[in-house]
Write a structure and sequence with these properties.
The protein is α/β, with parallel strands linked by helices. It has 24 helices and twelve strands. Strand 2, helix 7 and strand 3 form a beta-alpha-beta unit. The longest helix has 21 residues. The radius of gyration is 29 Å and the shape is elongated.
Length: 632
């Protein structure tokens, strides 16, 4: 059903229908101008009105049959882009019946709003200009779309679909069969295709092509492998950077810094500092600024180039206690001993009565989280050795008891975890329990840690991969992969148990080899140790580095060198620290960012985009302190 405005109604009443019908078939453009005022109905305004009135949202049996036939061509592990997705009806079918993840684009804002209400992901975009990264999707679909485009526009849309589809990926689209649903019958259609035109058209974009008829006989379903044209590197990088211009140029008090850092990373400008002491001192000074910014004693979660300083973060503040103490031991500067004490006193003031720590920033309404509580416990164990305060001892006792009380029969923690799913990186929770055991001599803490560690050991595959390190269903960040690995190393050291250290070494060696071969580590990895993906087409993982994870890997390699004395670990730690120093912000005039470590490199990557997380600086400082010890 087409939406008729005042002009259409007036014209249809003024001109007899037989004349209009004759004009439609013999002078179709004139008919369109007389009836609608233009030759193309496919405007944003027109389709917004269609979606707003809801007359296009009902799925007819023939259309659902077409959806099912297209869906049956898609491999189950695919990530799909649906071009011209409308309200997401096809995407909803993929999700509910085929468990396939998808992302949609449509030029109608009302359609995208309807899609998002269904819990699906999409964005407003034209089929000829989609601001997403190249090679982002396994499959690209366009169902009942291309016939709505002119010949020139259709070719542009196909080039965009080819660009977004991965090498050897699949492109699936539908076209009306010869002389069916021609523009004279469906005024929204811009053109019809003969069988010869269809076969000529697809040769330019597809290989291994298949053509099938829909069950009602009105449509061809065309599918095949993407005939990829590889873009030149500079053009590719320019497109990547331009995709973030809208974010970077949003006018606010941080615009100039965002633009500057975006351009620096795009052009690959590096900090030339290679002096470890300067880098370390700058990092610790920035952490001090992050603490002072909260006026509470806790450390700000991050400094964002959109929102400024975030609220204090209990989890991260807790383990920064240890970093301040280590720096105090190294430099003898009592300011950092006092800062560590301020954090500890603040943690005591906000801990729940049962000993648990809430998830997220201090102002969130999240419930208590086992992992977060354990990270605070790590710092509290260290500071108790310095001050022997009774309130610190009470904190350690209550927190460790609470963690054990939430452990499941299997040895895992699920209910009181982020997103209520199991995380292998709770090896660090085991580390915290063992540190508490060393102080309290409570055997149940040691037994709980070993029970969980032995469970997590079973998650390692032959290639050194640990499952269960994702926050949701995406490929895990290097940050969480390193979390799990470091937990095994630290627990192995305390327990003097080789099986935990050996297990960690398998993962650490794989990442070491990747780093020495490529010169960097990817922000995410999949189970085959290939660059992973967050299932977000804006930010493919292989185009960014997770700097926090790199600093953590430096720590792991340094620890393994101390255990094994194998030179390769020390060399890798030195090299990755040098690369991290090249990314560090050096701007003494702006204390908000001077000495900070970006979440991602480039700064517009997935992990903590346009932000400087406090835990990234913490792990970088830890890595530099360990390097200094190795140099001795």
């Amino acid at each position: 059903m087409k939406i008729r405005g005042k002009k259409e109604l007036f014209t249809s009443r003024l001109i007899p229908w037989r004349i209009l019908n004759w004009l439609n078939y013999h002078f179709h453009p004139l008919y369109m101008i007389l009836l609608y005022g233009h030759t193309n109905l496919n405007t944003v305004k027109y389709w917004d009105k269609r979606w707003l009135t809801g007359d296009y949202g009902d799925i007819e049996p023939e259309r659902m049959s077409l959806f099912i036939k297209v869906a049956s061509k898609i491999p189950h592990d695919s990530f799909v882009l649906d071009v011209g997705c409308g309200d997401g009806s096809f995407m909803e079918l993929l999700r509910s019946s085929y468990k396939i993840k998808s992302f949609g684009i449509d030029f109608s804002p009302f359609a995208i709003q309807a899609l998002e209400k269904k819990g699906l992901k999409g964005k407003v975009a034209s089929a000829t200009r989609i601001a997403l990264n190249d090679n982002s999707f396994d499959v690209v679909t366009a169902i009942e779309i291309l016939e709505h485009l002119s010949k020139n526009t259709c070719n542009k849309a196909m080039k965009e679909m080819s660009r977004l589809c991965r090498d050897n990926g699949m492109i699936i689209f539908t076209l009306p069969r010869s002389r069916s649903l021609i523009p004279q019958i469906e005024n929204e259609h811009m053109r019809s295709y003969t069988d010869l035109e269809i076969r000529t058209f697809i040769k330019e974009y597809l290989v291994e092509t298949n053509i099938e008829a829909s069950e009602d006989g009105f449509y061809y379903i065309v599918y095949g492998r993407n005939k990829k044209v590889i873009p030149k590197p500079m053009i590719f990088r320019l497109k990547q950077c331009m995709g973030f211009c809208e974010l970077a140029l949003k006018v606010d008090s941080f615009t100039l810094i965002r633009v500057k850092e975006t351009l620096k990373d795009f052009l690959r400008f590096e900090n030339k500092n290679k002096e470890i002491n300067l880098a370390l001192d700058s990092t610790m000074a920035w952490l001090s600024v992050a603490q002072d910014a909260t006026d509470s004693g806790g450390i700000a979660e991050a400094f964002s180039l959109f929102d400024g300083w975030k609220m204090p973060y209990p989890e991260v503040s807790g383990y920064i206690i240890s970093t301040f103490l280590d720096y105090y031991k190294l430099k003898g500067d009592k300011e950092y001993l006092n800062r560590a004490e301020r954090i500890a006193d603040w943690e005591v003031s906000i801990v729940n009565s049962d000993g648990s720590i809430k998830g997220g920033q201090v102002d969130t309404k999240r419930g208590p989280i086992v992992f977060n509580t354990a990270q605070v416990l790590l710092g509290m164990c260290d500071i108790y050795k310095h001050f022997q305060k009774s309130q610190y001892h009470s904190f350690i006792k209550k927190a460790s008891d609470w963690i054990v009380s939430k452990q499941e029969e299997s040895g895992d923690w699920v209910k009181y975890e982020f997103n209520n799913i199991s995380h292998t990186y709770n090896t660090r929770t085991c580390w915290a329990l063992l540190k508490a055991y060393e102080l309290l001599k409570d055997e149940k803490l040691k037994n709980a840690a070993i029970k969980a560690l032995d469970l997590y050991l079973l998650r390692r595959t032959e290639n050194g991969w640990y499952s269960g390190n994702s926050f949701k269903d995406e490929d895990p960040f290097l940050h969480t992969i390193a979390y799990a690995t470091s937990g095994f190393v630290e627990c192995g050291i305390i327990l003097n148990e080789a099986k935990y250290i050996d297990s960690a070494r398998k993962s650490a060696v794989v990442l070491l080899d990747l780093f020495m071969k490529d010169g960097y580590l990817s922000g995410q990895y999949n189970e085959n140790w290939q660059p992973g993906n967050i299932k977000d087409p804006y930010y493919p993982a292989f185009k960014y580095r997770c700097l926090t994870g790199e600093a953590q890997m430096s720590i792991i390699w340094s620890e393994l060198y101390n255990i094994t004395k194998e030179e390769k670990y020390k060399i890798a730690a030195y090299k990755i620290n040098e690369k991290l120093m090249q990314t560090q912000i050096y701007n003494p005039k702006d204390k908000r960012i001077h000495g900070a470590i970006k979440g991602s490199m480039p700064i517009y990557g997935v992990y903590m985009r346009y932000s400087f997380p406090s835990w990234g600086a913490k792990f970088f400082a830890d890595a530099l302190i360990l390097e200094g010890e190795l140099l001795k």
